[in-house]
Amino acid sequence: MLELRNIVKSYENKPLLQGVSFSVSKGETVCLLGASGSGKSTLLRIIAGLEFPESGHVLFNKIDLAQTPPHIRDFGLVFQDYGLFPHLNIFDNIAFGLRMRKVSLVKINSRVTEMLELVNMQGFEKRKVTDLSGGEQQRVALARALAPQPRLLMFDEPLGALDRTLKEDLLHELRSILHKTKIPAIYVTHDQDEAFTIADRILLLHNGEIIRDGTPDEVWKNPDSVYAARMLGLGNVIDGVVISANKAKTEVGILSLNCKHRHAKGEPVSLLLKQSDDGIDEIKLKVEDVLFKRDQFEIKARSGLVIHMKDAPKIGQIIRVRVKVECLA
Ligand code: ADP
Ligand code: MG
What's the predicted TM-score (pTM) here? Predict the structure, then answer.
């Protein structure tokens, strides 16, 4: 469906996107995860046709869109600040794209009703935008984007302004709506929890390139790089030095090295430690802080290591934890 080939873009001679390539299939929700300023919004604007790449191509169904102006692309956009028209009521907001396409009044009426049902806002037709809560406004923005049956939907940090619980509810709903309508979607966020909840596939944007592309499960199990592991909140990355073919020395003890690469003795490595009862390595940690987290305790130790336990240890106590060790480079 959508395919990006080697998109390059810079601003004021500073490179931003340095050869971004990926594709989105029918019915797939792809999540683009990247730090603030990494070029996510710029990439969406390029796909929408609001901005042009210096080189590279945007294709839809194998057709290059370079000559296709934004309003002919049939792509929908949903932003963080909703972008609703404050002077129009809810009905007219959702009907906007349909009127532009000269859809008949009868069809507009039934489509708006259908969209309001889909986003769980039945009966809101006559309400004013300014009377709605943030969550309700975002539902209307989604209904407005969906109404003209776009070929692709793009979301730019759409839930950024909402509180946590509302965010989670909307995220689950959005996921089911996207799968129901089978519209391919690109969802942009800097929040890894959001990415793991909504995505069929996760793309990590870093230094102008996609450094990881995989299902949430694949990316979680194997982040591949220190940066990806940190970005995904997998946390526990620790430095070590190789002391033999399959051992590395770290500040929490000697750990096993299971790595695709062959490391020379004395070589520095970064290791990802995942807490796991069937891990073959055991580390010793001195408890620095204990935080209560719903059904467990979060224990902080030296080097920013974080582990979880059912029962709270005392601060200063030495604890032993089983871990699986993964080599990141
Ligand atoms: P993100 O959405 O990932 O936070 P953006 O795509 O908004 O990142 O912006 C990435 C960088 O590009 C920022 O440093 C921003 O200042 C710069 N930038 C974006 N648009 C412009 C522009 N029109 N002119 C100059 N610099 C821009
Ligand atoms: Mg942005």
Answer: 0.86
Q: Is there an atom of ligand 1 within 6 Å of 189 CB?
A: no
The alpha helices in the chain, defined as continuous H runs, are 40-48, 90-100, 105-118, 134-146, 164-181, 192-198, 216-221, 226-231
Task: State pLDDT tens for residues 44-58.
Answer: 999 999 999 999 999
86 alpha carbon to ligand 1 midpoint, in Å? 27
Alpha-carbon 313 to chain mean position: 34
Closest ligand (CA of 32): 1
- Report the atom number in ligand 1 closest to the C-alpha of 12: 25
How far apart are alpha carbons 282 and 324 in whole angstroms?
9
| Residue-range domains of the chain with CATH | 2-227 (3.40.50.300), 235-327 (no CATH)
Centre of ligand 1 to C-alpha 47, Å, is: 15
pLDDT digits (tens, 9 = 90+) for 160-206: 878 888 888 889 999 999 999 999 999 999 998 899 999 999 999 99
The DSSP code sequence of 288-303 is -EEEEETTEEEEE-GG
How far apart CA 186 and CA 20 sit, in angstroms, is 14
Nearest atom in ligand 1 to the alpha carbon of residue 42 is 6
